[in-house]
Structures are given as C-alpha cells and as structure tokens.
# Entry
Amino acid sequence: MNDLYSRHRGVLPDWLALYYDEPLELTHGEGRHVWDSDGNKYLDFFGGILTTMTAHALPEVTKAVSEQAGRIIHSSTLYLNRPMVELAERIAQLSGIPDARVFFTTSGTEANDTALLLATTYRRSNTVLAMRNSYHGRSFSAVGITGNRSWSPTSLSPLQTLYVHGGVRTRGPFAELDDRAFIDACVEDLKDVLGHTRPPAALIAEPIQGVGGFTSPPDGLYAAFREVLNAQGILWIADEVQTGWGRTGDHFWGWQAHARSGPPDMITFAKGIGNGASIGGVIARAEIMNCLDANSISTFGGTQITMAAGLANLTYLVEHDLQGNARRVGGLLIERLRAVAAQLPGVREVRGRGLMIGVELVKPGTDEADPQAASAVLEAAREGGLLIGKGGGHNTSALRIAPPLSLTVAEAEEGAAILERALRSTY
Ligand SMILES: Cc1ncc(COP(=O)(O)O)c(C=O)c1O
# Structure
C-alpha cells in the first residue's frame, strides 16, 4: 500500500470508496487528459464524476477564478453579490421555468435537500415520490429518496417515500413491453400508488439515472407522469445534477426529452456548472421558492469565487456549442461502442445519449449482472491509459462514460479503442 493510501485509510471513513486496486492520486490535468503522481497520463472519460464539464485547466475558468480570488473570495449572502446575480439571471433564463428564482448551494445533495424543503412546505405534505434505482445525494433527507440500496445506508427518514417504476427501461416487470406500453404501465403504476397514499408533495426524478448506471425511461414518460401529477397539484422536480448543461447532446436539460409536458416546477443542478468549483442550486417558480416563512441561507452558496468559475464555464460552454459537440462526438462514440458490443456476449446493453454513455456487463449467456467484470474492465482501461466510471442498481455492473464535453473525435476514437481492448481482455 503506498504511503498516501495508508494515510487515507488511517484517517478517512471506510465508506469513502476508492477506484482501483492501487488507487490513483491525480495531480494535474489539461483538456481531456489527467496525470497521476507517477507521471502516467490518462484520457479522462469520467471527469471527476461528470464534474469537469468543459475541460481540465480551462484557461478561461482559471483566469476568472484567479482574478476573482485577487479581489474577494467570499462575502456571504448578507451583501449584494454581482457574480451571483449574473449567474442566477443566466440560469433562470436557460431553465425554461417561468418567473424563475435561483438559490445557490455548494452541492447536489444540498440542492435536493432544498427542493424537498420547498416542496414539502409548499404542499404541506412529507410524502415524496421517487424512482426506483435513483440517487439524489448523501444527506439524511437525500438518502431517504434514493432508490438504490448501495447508496442508502439507512431507512430512517423525515420523509415518507414511495418508489415508482420507469427509470430503468430494460429490466423489471415492464421490460418486455414496447415503449408505448411501457409508459402506459408506469402511468398505471403511478396512479395505483397515488390511490393508496395521502397527497404527495412532489415527484423527484433524474431524467437519466446517473449512479444507477445511465439508465432512462423512453422519451415522454415524465410528460405522461406530469399529466397525472398536475391533476393533483403534485410538483415535478427534475434532478439535473448529471444531465444538465447539454451533456445529453439532444437537449440542454434532460427534462427536455419529455418536453410535451413543459418545464418542471423545480430543477436541481450541481456538478458540471462549476467545472470543479463547488456550485449546486435549485431553480423554482417564484411562488414555490418564496413559500418559506423563515430565513434560510447557505453560507458558501453563491460565493464569489465559485460564481466566477460558473460564469466563465457557462460562457465557454455556450459560445463553443459544447452541447452540439456532445451530440456529434457522443453519437460517434456510442455507435462505435455498439459495434464492439455486438461482438461481445458479456455486454448486455450500450445505452445513453450525448456524452453520457452506459455499458452494462453481464455474465455471458445470462442476464446476471457482473460487477467483477466491470471492475476488471475499469482496471484494464486504466492500464491502457483511460479513466472511466461504473455504476448500476443492486450490482455495480455498468461502465459509465462521461468525458468533458469538449471531447474531440480523435480522443473519442482513442478512448473507444482502449475500452475495446479492455473489454476483450476481460471476456
Ligand atoms: C443525480 C444526482 N443528484 C444528486 C447528487 C448529489 O450531488 P453531490 O455529490 O454534489 O452532493 C448526485 C451525485 O452524484 C447525483 O448524481
């Protein structure tokens, strides 16, 4: 065990999982590449869990952060804060939510916590609908709406949560149905759940489940859900912590795959917007955001240094049409991986859209998840010079591919070739 690893083990919690038999210390990055403390270079297809959204060491972000640090890093929300107001204006306008208000936090967990506080207060109900196989964060309230057993360490909760079907298309009781019938069956399930409970505050859902292994329902499911929810005034919260800002290529927000329904009542975001600076937040219609009758702040939420990073990052993303790049390069990458998968019996499915691609592994000839194979492919890819992630429901057997959105075609080709070798060496 190297020195830093044993020190890590000696002082940090056991449940703070590390990737790889010999964990990596990443010391620097540039563009889509990172280097470890031994000087090895890797193509980064995971971006620190979809957080390095544009590129490593993006000069525009570095410059904005260092200039802001030289002026003032933090003043709290007790004082007017120009970068916070500017970023809130831009996010409100991009959200599609009418009369939107934005509240900044420091993480996705805290963003979802805030959305739950707002929804339960607005609706005077502590019942929440969530999706099976979901992940919404690590706090006491967030684990209470997380439908993924591996990430929910307690069933104690301030909320009463009911889990509905639909987030996983190709497993579960409705898997054999076609898209239309699948949506109808999920809607019937939702109606059935609603018939047995007191009126819930909200439905919270990731448009594409992140930790759950990049699984998603057929387009339009949440529009169909929305009609049922609307009839009872139940709010819809889209957790866009992984899917926001154009990552899915076809859309700027994941919810837009369900656009017939119009925007959600609330959007939560985090990860990519700060390109590594800790920004999270909630966007909500004013009447919902303003429903609290006591003060509430987040000391670090919206602090100048992170807002400077967010503004520079968002400007770069929009000006360079990285959503379009995610669509084009992600489209090539997914086709390339599907062609490889067709030759490998251990690959059950290649799914996702844009630069959010999941590769689910099973024991060949069965439908049984193969977490050992996923770990082996992760190791082999690393040896080949490629970093990827993994995720999935009860068994972590999906590879997760989510590079920075500035990925080039040549880098996509290179990464796909390394991954192909890693898959072939495992099966
Ligand atoms: C969809 C989703 N929501 C919320 C969170 C929690 O975000 P954070 O880790 O910033 O608290 C995550 C983190 O992975 C996530 O994927």
Remarks:
- Residues 49, 107-109, 112, 135-138, 206, 210-211, 239, 241-242, 270, 280 surround pyridoxal-5'-phosphate (CB under 6 Å).
- Residues 322-341 form the longest helix (20 residues).
- The first strand starts at residue 26 and ends at 30.
- The chain has a mean pLDDT of 96.
